[in-house]
Each structure stands twice: as C-alpha cells, then as structure tokens.
C-alpha cells in the first residue's frame, strides 16, 4: 500500500476524515471495517484514522497535542531565575539592567519572567518609628526593589523625616573631549565636593570621644559658594580641563547664593593665561541646565546601589557614583542640551515642547552618533 508520506495531517484533512466516518455511522456506531475503508480512501494507515476518531470523540475541537512539547527548550526556568535573584543583595536588583548584569539572565528572558509573575516590582516604604504618642504621624518615603515570590520587603523606620540628613554637593562637569596636550581622552568630570565641615566633637558619647572630627552639614550660602568656586573649582579646572585658548565660561543657575560669582571676582583668578567668565542660565529654564538633562539621574541611579546609614556613607556613595559615571552619559547630556536649544529657537524662546529623544544609544551602537546636533540656518 502506497501510504501518504506527509509528516502530519492538516486540520482540514482531519475534518474530511471525520466527515467520512460520520457518513459510515449506523445508529451512532461505526460498522466493522470503517477505519480500514476510510484509510484506503484517503491513502492513510488505519492506525492514523483510529487516532483521529478517538481524538475527535474526546474533544471535538481536536486541539494540538504538541503544545509544550515542541520548540526550543526553556533554558532559564522559574526555579533557576528565582534562585539567582534571591541571593542578590537589594542594591543589585533595583533595576532590570542590574539584574541582567549580575545574574546573566538575558533581557528577554527576564522580561518574560517579569510578565509571568516570577519576579515582581515592589516598593519599600520608609515609615516613622511608631510610638504611642505619634501613631498617626505617618510618613512615606518610597524606594523600589524587585523581589521573587515568597519574599517580603524589609521594614525601615525613622522617627521623623526631619532627622534624615540632606547633603549638598557642588559638581563641575564639562563636555568630554580629546586632550591633545596629554594625548588622552578627557572624561568631562572636573570634580565634586560635599558641602560639609569637619568639626571636633564637643563632648564624649558612646559613638565618639571628645575631639573626634565629625562631619557637619552646613547651609550653602553665598560666602560658602564663593569659597568653593575660588578654592576648589577654579584650581581643578586649571589642573585637568583641556582648552586651546584657556577661555572658560562657568554656567550656573540663578540660585541666590550663586550670584556672588561675578566676572570681576573671576578676574582675580584669571592668571597663567586663563580667562574665566560666568554666565547664568535663563530664569525658569531648568531644561537648559546640562546637569538636569541626565547627569543628576545617572549619579542618582549609581548612588542608590550603595546602602547608606550616615552622612559619611552618603558622601562616600555619591563620590563613588561620580567616579563610576561613564563619560558617555555626559556626552549624551550635552547632545540633549543642544537638541533643547534648537527646540527653543524653533519655538521663539518658548518651552512648549517635550524633552527630545535622539536615540543616542542606538546611534552609538551603529557608529552613527552625531558629534553635534545640527541647526537650520534660518533659526540662527
């Protein structure tokens, strides 16, 4: 018998076999030899006809039995992903990118398990330390971390948000460029300095002895800002900033303490061929501040990976994040600034536009990232 050589029957072919068998049915039963005659009619084996009929009798829809038994085998099972993520510290699973790097699980596999619920995004709420006197004084300070099923977010408590120290930093950055004098690439990072003072402890305590230097937070006022710019920022620029003409423009925002820096004051440090001038960004224009266009977000994303319990921990974590920041982030921030400036020109100085997305990562991967954002002549 010359039987059909197809690997499997189509759904349409199976329906034809079922219809043929229905025609042979007598009083709801198949007569003897029905499978054999049908197999001969369709050039099939009798066993195949029998399997089709039995499958139809069980479920008239005849669903495919291949589901779950064919295709690529799953490499990263639920148990594997759960085990890898469960052993990670929380500082290494605050973002999917961190988990991809630390677990080795591919991006698509991790997204699949996030969609199916193997891993879940949860928020960690910082609440006041509850006492009988302040049960109603609840404060929520949210962080987020990814957890696996069965895990719970640890409880964090603080008596009041007023007791959470806030450390101010002064950061100076420039656009990365090649330093022809040194023959190396300048990463764009001038420096970052915490606005603190180190004062000796006035009395003994269980935490420190008298005279131990204690990191003390200070208010950033005009006098302090002037001191930091003149004694820290300017020397750092002269030491590491590559410039052919040594003409440097300092840009800051319009905060009141920053107004103490003037061109006349900078003239006193414009020595050794260097010339310093200051230009403040326009009022109500945070979108023209390169620090707000990706620098702060990049620093914060790195700083959150370090767990801090004191002011010194925050300072160390922030300075470490500044050191780890890739120069590509600053390149992207300056390109975004140029794109925003072009939109400002297109809108006649207005701000009726969203932040532009240039697809810089994709362009960099393909080697097509622009050096500068182009601007039409009629806008200049």
What's the gist of this structure?
This protein is an alpha/beta fold and 380 residues long. It is built from twelve helices and eleven strands. The radius of gyration is 34 Å and the shape is elongated.
Textual characterization of the structure:
36% of the residues lie in helices and 16% in strands. It has 380 residues and is of the alpha/beta class. It has 3 domains: 1-71, no CATH class; 78-163, no CATH class; 169-379, Nucleotidyltransferase, domain 5, CATH 3.30.420. Mean pLDDT is 81; it is low at 134-144. GO terms for molecular function: nucleic acid binding.
Whole-number total of structural domains:
3
Rg, nearest Å: 34 Å
The CATH topology of the largest domain turns out to be Nucleotidyltransferase, domain 5
N-to-C SSE string, H for helix and E for strand: HHHHHHEEEEEEEEEHEHEHHHH
Using the 3D structure, state the CATH architecture of the largest domain.
2-Layer Sandwich
Given the structure, what is the number of helices? 12
Give the strand content: 15-25%
Shape: elongated
Short descriptors:
single chain; 380 residues; alpha/beta; Nucleotidyltransferase, domain 5; three-stranded mixed β-sheet; 36% helix; elongated; Transposase Tc1-like domain-containing protein; nucleic acid binding; RNaseH_sf
